[in-house]
Every structure is written in C-alpha cells, then in structure tokens.
UniProtKB/TrEMBL annotation:
ATP binds at residues 9-10, 17, 88-90, 98, 123-129. The keyword Nucleotidyltransferase applies. The gene is coaD. Residues 6-133 form the Cytidyltransferase-like domain. InterPro entries: Cyt_trans-like (IPR004821), PPAT (IPR001980), Rossmann-like_a/b/a_fold (IPR014729). GO terms for molecular function: pantetheine-phosphate adenylyltransferase activity. It is an enzyme of class 2 (transferase). It is found in: Cytoplasm. HAMAP family: PPAT_bact. Belongs to the bacterial CoaD family. Its EC number is 2.7.7.3. It holds the Pfam family CTP_transf_like. Reversibly transfers an adenylyl group from ATP to 4'-phosphopantetheine, yielding dephospho-CoA (dPCoA) and pyrophosphate. This is Phosphopantetheine adenylyltransferase. It comes from Chryseomicrobium palamuruense.
Length: 160
C-alpha cells in the first residue's frame, strides 16, 4: 500500500489545501493528513478543532485519514510506513523554505520522498493567515474554504 503524508498546521484548512489533498488522494492508496502543532504559531483553532474540520472537509475522499503528531515528521512517516511526504507549492517564494525542510528530512530519513504539488492558479494567493484576516471582517469566504470551515470561522469571530 502506497501511503503519503500531507503535513501542516491547517489553521484552518483552505480550498488550496483541499485541492492538494484531493489530487494526492488520486495518486496514493492512503493519505494521512497530519496536523502538526507548531509552537511558533498562535493558532485560532485547537488541534482537535482543526482535525474535525479536516475530517469533515475530506469525508468524500475514502482514502484520507486525519491524525496529529508532535515531533519530527520523518519519525511520523516511519511510524506510519509512509513512502512520501506531499507538500503544496503556491509560488516560487514557497520553494526555498520547502527545499530546506526537504533537504533536512532527507538527511534524517532518506527512505521517504518529498513530492511537491503545485496548487491550482485560483488558489495561488490563498493561505490560512489571509483567510483568518478576511474572516475577521465578516467577508464572504465560500470560495476560499470548505463550508464547515466558513461556519467555524464565523462562529470564532462573532464570539470576540
């Protein structure tokens, strides 16, 4: 079974993320979407909320599972017997950072490959940070995030 890991903070998952996950799910037998808890970020959603939003947004994809992990991604890939890490690229500016991470991952475990999938042009500007900024001002979000995420963002920002 060919298993790929799609890691990220997903705070929250966007249609750009969903595009990458969907396209990867057509190539691999199993996709593990892994919510990493990045201590350098101040997330809007808890890890559990992010996992629920991803699970709901990907329920139509029969070979996608959602998980969380703290630690090195290469350790997780070993634990799950994954052959690949999938990373989405939006623009050239993403490439340098992703190349550094990929090089380190290869040094730590040369048995797992990193594959880059270019996002569709319609999502090339999209990031979780931008979505949160737009949501803060109650703008229309339906073309940027799955419906459950839009509802969750509206709920978060009407509490404040």
């Amino acid at each position: 079974m060919k298993i790929a890991v799609v890691p990220g903070s997903f705070d929250p998952i966007t249609n750009g993320h969903l595009d990458i996950i969907t396209r990867a799910s057509m190539i691999f037998d199993k996709i593990k979407v892994v919510v990493l808890n990045n201590s350098s970020k101040n997330p809007l959603f808890t890890v559990e909320e992010r996992m629920d939003l991803i699970a709901t947004s990907t329920q139509h994809l029969g070979n996608v599972e959602v998980d969380t992990f703290s630690g090195l991604l290469v350790d997780y890939t070993k634990q799950e017997k994954a052959q690949a890490i999938i990373r989405g690229l939006r623009a050239v500016s993403d490439f340098e950072y992703e190349m550094q991470i990929t090089s380190m991952n290869r040094k730590l475990n040369d048995q797992v490959e990193t594959l880059f999938i270019m996002t569709k042009n319609e999502y090339s500007f999209l990031s979780s940070s931008i979505v949160k900024e737009v949501a803060k001002y109650q703008a229309e979000l339906s073309e940027f995030v799955p419906a459950p995420v839009e509802a969750a963002l509206k709920k978060k920002y009407t509490k404040e």
